[in-house]
Write a structure and sequence with these properties.
The protein is α+β, with helices and mostly antiparallel strands and 449 residues long. The protein has 3 domains: 21-167 and 293-354, Bira Bifunctional Protein, Domain 2 (BirA Bifunctional Protein, domain 2), CATH 3.30.930; 170-279, Bira Bifunctional Protein, Domain 2 (BirA Bifunctional Protein, domain 2); 359-448, 3-Layer(aba) Sandwich (Rossmann fold). Helix content is 42%, strand content 20%. The chain has helices at residues 3-16, 28-47, 61-68, 94-103, 147-163, 176-185, 190-202, 205-210, 215-226, 234-243, 249-263, 329-343, 369-380, 394-404, 414-419, 439-448, and strands spanning 51-52, 58-60, 78-80, 86-89, 112-121, 133-142, 170-175, 270-273, 284-292, 301-308, 322-328, 359-363, 385-387, 408-412, 421-426, 432-436. The strands form 3 sheets. An 8-stranded mixed beta sheet has the order 1-5-6-11-10-9-7-8. Strands 13-12-14-15-16 form a 5-stranded mixed beta sheet, with helices on both faces. Strands 2-4-3 form a 3-stranded antiparallel beta sheet. A hairpin with a 5-residue loop joins strand 3 and strand 4. Helix 2 (28-47) runs antiparallel to helix 5 (147-163) and helix 9 runs antiparallel to helix 10. The longest helix is centred in the N-terminal third of the chain and has 20 residues, at 28-47. The protein is elongated, with a radius of gyration of 28 Å. The N and C termini lie far apart (63 Å).
């Protein structure tokens, strides 16, 4: 093999072992932040009465084609197993949770409140805020199709982004039933209804006119879309809808839901009632919402959901409709990182640096067995301890302790063993404190420094 072959093989090897496009690695600092955010989401979920569930990372392909159509296959990591079954890595988490409930034949306490979290996979263009492997946090409420349920779901989503410290976000909220009432009154149904919904969701009124919808109706729909504000816009919306000869029960439901949401304490920085938002998905049937942030530009939607019907796919029509949301875990973190950098905040996720301070224990010129019982006692008492595993000089060991992110260090040498006293050093500023060489005394000293 000549030099060129070696060089080419080296390049090939490096390419083979590169991280796959659209995926990311998370080091200790990033992982600590992600875990802090996940714990925070779970704490909010607990306060709202949600129970955590989990489903497999891969599912049968037909679960997602039945929900979203065969065209979604191009976006999936689909494959056949050794028994020639069509499987795919899950692209989202709602359908798997529905499948889980269907396998139990719907025999669950109702209403059920489930939360979930995990990685999802889509084969699509990879860019900032959009990844081929991404994480989703979400929830579903099953068995209580009411405006109050919808308010609970939206309030839960708002509570997560508020507790995370996200600033300047906007809640867009609407009701698919209002559009269904209007478009149904215009004689649209089936594919024509779905096409009109998608055009409205994009704000493509020229496309609506080109599709054959009456010009007066298009003008009224455009006026409806241009309403800008919160619950106060519903009076104007009612006038427009009534002028089209439509009585919309969905509008009453939306008003009730918004009043419930306010009473539940949700207080978004900006609330926009958007009566032409359809979430772009055909299975939504009631209230729909999305949470947007400016920092992410075109990928600014960090959460979306609403009321939908999926259980009919499993023959469990009596459980429809349900209500839930999917929160873009990665996008929320990205927006928080951008905002933290702008404001100079040291913490991206509130509390990510909190918790018990870590102590680096450095045995120096003593038999390590003389400190192991002490280390064990500290850990048993809840004190995080990093034990130096290499024999090296004090300078290198202290540099190691600083590099690990430990807040305190304790060198245990022959004199410390003999005297039964140790010195605890705070690494941020070099402050020191002496104490008895016992787990209880060391933990108390760290707490007081």
């Amino acid at each position: 093999m000549n030099g060129a072959d070696l060089k080419n093989n080296g390049c090939a090897a490096r390419f083979m072992f590169e991280r796959a496009r659209g995926t990311r690695d998370f080091g200790p600092a990033e992982m600590g932040r992600r875990l802090a955010f996940e714990r925070m989401c779970d704490e909010v979920a607990f306060r709202y009465g949600f129970q955590r569930v989990a489903t497999p990372t891969f599912e049968r392909l037909e679960l997602f084609t039945a929900k979203s159509g065969a065209s979604i296959t191009d976006q999936l990591y689909a494959f056949k197993d050794r028994s020639d079954r069509d499987l795919t890595l899950r692209p989202e988490l709602t359908a798997p949770v529905m499948r889980m409930i269907a396998e139990q034949k719907g025999q669950i306490p109702k209403p059920a409140r489930y939360s979930y979290f995990g990685p999802c996979f889509r084969y699509e263009e990879s860019k900032r805020g959009r990844y081929r492997e991404f994480w989703q946090y979400g929830c579903e409420i099953i068995g209580a199709p009411t405006s109050l349920t919808e308010a609970e779901v939206v309030a839960f989503a708002c509570a997560i982004v508020e507790e995370a410290g996200l600033e300047g976000w906007q809640l867009n909220i609407g009701h698919v039933g209002i559009l269904n009432d209007i478009l149904g009154n215009l004689g649209l149904e089936g594919d024509a209804l779905g096409d009109a919904m998608r055009l409205l969701d994009k704000g493509d009124f020229a496309g609506l006119a080109a599709s054959g919808i009456d010009s007066t109706a298009v003008t009224n729909l455009q006026s409806l879309a241009q309403l800008n504000g919160g619950i106060e816009t519903l009076a104007s919306a009612r006038e427009i809808i009534t002028s089209m000869g439509v009585e919309s029960e969905a509008l009453d439901q939306l008003e009730e839901m918004l009043n419930n949401l306010s009473s539940l304490g949700a207080n978004p920085p900006t609330l926009v009632v958007d009566l032409t938002v359809a979430r772009g998905l055909d299975y939504y049937t009631g209230m729909v919402f999305e949470i947007m942030v400016d920092e992410l530009g075109g990928e600014g939607q960090v959460c979306g959901g609403g009321s939908y019907k999926l259980f009919h796919l499993f023959g469990l029509d009596d459980l429809d409709p349900c209500c839930g949301f999917g929160l873009g875990f990665d996008r929320v973190l990205l927006a928080l990182e951008i905002q933290a950098e702008k404001s100079g905040r040291s913490e991206v996720v509130p509390g990510e640096n909190s918790g018990a301070s870590t102590l680096a224990v450095i045995p120096f010129k003593v038999d390590v067995s003389q400190v192991l019982a002490l280390v064990s006692g500290l850990r048993a008492g809840g004190q995080p301890v990093l034990l130096e595993l290499r024999e090296r000089n004090i300078g290198k060991s202290m540099a190691w302790a600083n590099s690990t992110g430990a807040q305190f260090a304790m060198v245990v040498g022959p004199r410390d063993i003999e005297s039964g006293q140790v010195t605890i050093k705070r690494l941020s500023d070099g402050a020191e404190a002496n104490c008895e060489m016992s787990a209880e005394a060391i933990s108390q000293t760290i707490s007081s420094m």
